[in-house]
Structures are given as C-alpha cells and as structure tokens.
C-alpha cells in the first residue's frame, strides 16, 4: 500500500515541481556496478550491497509545499544502513546525463566518507554532521572536488529560485545553500516559526533525518509534549507509539483497490525488515496455547486430528523416513559480525547418509555427455614419459653419456647420472564438491526439471569426468534448520570408488531446508585438511545466498560465510563457487573475490559446465 501511495505522490510532485528531465535520466541499473566498485575502492564497507531506494510517501506529504515552491524534487533519496547502500532507482534532476551520473558517484563517495567519519560531539545536529561528511569526502579524495562543485552549481539555484517563499523559509534555504557551497561554514539553521513545514531533503546529502525542525503535528497525531501531564511522554508510551502503524481505510466498493503481490517475494522482503527475530534459544511464550488450540482442532469427516493429517514444508521428517544419522554431531564455530568475534561451538553439524539409496547405473540421457567428458578429461591424465639424466634407469641416456665422456677428456669430473627412467607422474590434487540442497532447489527451471535435478545431473557427470583423470575427489550436500540442525550428507568420500553405489546415493538426494553455508564450508575444510594432496580445491554449487530461519539471513550469513572462506584459504584450500543465482554477482565478489566464482545464467547448462570449471582450476 505504501509503495502505491509513493507512486501517486511521485507523479503529483513531478507535475508540481516541474524540475525533472526524463530525456537525460540515468537509471541505477546503468551505474550500479560502477557505483559499487567506486564505493568500495574509497574504503566503503565491502559487505554492503547496492540497491534501489524508494520514495517515502510520508516525507513526500510533509515536503509537498516545498516541492510546489520549486525547491523540492521527486527523487527517492539515497540512504545507508548496516546492510544496504540505497541509491535512487533513477536520477533525472539535471538536464545533462553527465550530471545525473555524477550524482550517483558523488553519493557513493559520500557514503564511503560517512562510514569512516569519526564520532562528533554529543550535541552535533544532523545538519552539522552532513557538512562534516562532505568536508571529509572533499579533503580525503581531491578527485571528487570538481564533480561536487559542478553538482552544487547546478543544484543550488533550484532551492532559491522561488520568489513566493516566506522570509523565514527563505533564510533557511539560503543557509542550506551556503552549507552546500562551503561545507562547515554554517553552524546551525535559523529558528523557524511554529507550524513551519520542514525543509525539503537535500539531494546531495544522504537521507536519514530532516534538515529542518520536527514535522508539524496533525490533529490525529499524539501530543508530542504530552500536555496532559505537562512533561515528556513516559518511556513505555514512547515505545508504544514507535511501533504504531498508520491506518489507511480501503474503499468498500466491490471493485476497490486491490493489493497484488507474489508470495515467493516474501522471503526477500523480510531481509530488510528491522524486526526482532527469535533465536532457537528463546522460548516461545505462546507455545503452550498454540499447542492446546491445535490439539482441539478436528477434521469434519473423521476424528483424526489436523496435526496428524497436515505436514508443513518446514517440518522435519519422522525418524522412520529420515536419512541415517552418522555420529553424535560435530560442534563448529560461527562468526558474529555484530560482535566481531567467533562464537565457539555455536553450530551443531550432523553427518547423514541416505536411508533408501539402492545402487543405480548412470541414467540413459546422461551417457552420451558422460562419454564426451570422459574423452576430454582423459587428456588431463598424465602419461608415461622418459626422464633424462637419472642415477638409475632401464636404458642408457646417450646425451648424458656423451657429456660425461667430454668432461672426462677435458679433465672435469664427469656426471654419474647416465640413465633414462620411464615414469608416470600423478596429479597431486584433491577436490571436494559441496552441493546446496536447500528448499529452493525444489523450484522448476523448465517444464521437465527442477534445480535439484540439475544439481543431481551435475554431480553424476562430474564423477564420470573425474574418473578419467584419477584425481581424488569427494561429494557432499548440505541444508540446515537453524544452528542446531545443519545436515551434512556424505555422498562420496575420497577413499571410495565412483560406482553404482555412489550413483545411487546421488540419485537419492532431495531438497532439504535452508542454507547455513558457513558451517558446511568449515566441515569441508576439516575433511580436505586430512587429505595429503599438495593442491586442494573446494568447489561449491549454490542456487542462492546464505540464509536460515534464525539470525543467519541477510548480512549475518554473508559475513559468516566470508570468514569461513578466509579460514579455508588460510588452510591452503582453493574455494570456488558456481551458482545459478542471477543476483549472485551482487554478493559473491565480497565472499569469493572477483575471480573466485562463476554465475551460470541457464541452470540447465550446469551439468556440462561444472567439469569444465574444474579443468580450468586444475591447469
């Protein structure tokens, strides 16, 4: 609803202000990657993702008078939080495309400067902080000075062009323009008469708070001064109002306003909601009541309870149907980026094996591709060759014998390495393939196959290809349900032969739950460290970013995965990720580096391309 209201006000403001230049518009999609690289190159947090900002309808209503006067704009203002740097989805504030593009880069530079800004005095206002951030950016990076000056000269006249502005508001706008032209030169904004609407947000600053006084109070708003008691509102009342939602009455007609959404987008939206997500350590105070209510429900046609008839997607299977548990569970650490410390034994990983996995031959549709890959990978297998100048061997090295006779005739000490040896040099490397078996792999990529089917075919062809090289390799899959239930499936160990028994295990894999990737990577690191190969590769197959039901979604999961990858590199491993997530290019460089991942646009190509990625990594 709020997004719809924002679009309506977006159009109204455009007509009223008349300051947009659609022909010169620059979209965020055109500069998103450049702005992200620019932000990180200037020292911005590499964990922040760049995304589109939205128009705040409440700010639009409060600043409507200013926009009618011509000092406002319709652009969704840039802002930054702990997870995301949000830039306007489109900038058409200037008649030149170069200026609109410069504004994107300036906002990225300002965000980087603001992150590195030392804390100011306790009584510092937002107006002073904005100026201090601009000064820091201009002093730190002289290269952005000319860009900033061009933007100010094009933007400042817009805020002062109205001749109908009241004197007090005119003085405030002059102070804002002076602060833009000479950051740090204005200590404070002039006092405004009671009831004066706030100033329009400054396009060249990051949003986050108003630059003017607090918004005026509507008749329906609670009394900000609590005049009944003559003092400020009590803490509990403030907390209650802080969580109050604005009510919007919808039309009652038959064809009233409808809200349309896609159910699959709910998980993505929750990542950006600032809510207190419960952890598995927190008891549910309503659990007893919920269980009592569920126990009283019954089906209409029989006496069986609903709980025995309905199985939710997130329920774990019964012990009789679940996979076989191997061992008591392995405690693993997890990185908490908020506390900047490693939580020891925070995760419990359980190794599992398929309960029903009869031996199976290679499926008929894959056999032709398997033969082709087998022929290609056979060339990677080292052949037998003659090694010259050896102390022992099966035949005499004629060249070495001639050099020895020449040295003896010249009075030099001749070499005793006079033989040829026929040897076969083995490739000293090991690879572990870790497959994401989360709930999202149950989605369909075509009318004939799901993501889990594509991953299954990729593992089968990978095993067939590496069988031709003789390289040591292992296969594993994982999913999770919170930190206490990370499920790690051992499909093939290094000492096992790839045969119908292993193929049966791969054919038995099925979609699991969620993606606690950091724990799975740490377990793979432990397994690869036990292998004595001089070169060890961790190949990760994924269809989305790390996430789980608890705090592991969003940046928490990404930062833990990043630390796990750094631990793997310190152990001498080479991690590489192959993903079919089209959004992967936004977060994978932060996890694996610019050359540590590959994004496959067509999931059906994964089975044939996975062995080729391995061939490139082992050259």
Structure commentary:
This protein is of the alpha/beta class and 619 residues long. Helices cover 37% and strands 16% of the residues. It has 20 helices and 16 strands. Strands 6-7-13-12-11-14-15-16 form an eight-stranded mixed beta sheet, sandwiched between helices. Helix 15 (451-467) links the parallel strand 11 (429-436) and strand 12. Helix 15 crosses helix 20 (606-617). The radius of gyration is 32 Å and the shape is elongated. Mean pLDDT is 78; it is low at 1-18, 57-73, 209-275, 277-284 and 290-313.
| Span between termini | 55 Å
Large-scale geometry: elongated
> Count of DSSP E strands?
16
- What Rg do the Cα atoms give? 32 Å
Average of the residue pLDDT scores: 78
**Secondary-structure content class:** alpha/beta
Domain VWFA: 436-580
Biased composition (Basic and acidic residues): 237-249
Organism: Thauera sedimentorum
Region (Disordered): 213-249
In short:
With 619 residues, this protein is of the alpha/beta class. Helix content is 37%, strand content 16%.
Task: Note the main attributes of this structure.
alpha/beta, disordered N terminus, 619 residues, three-stranded mixed sheet
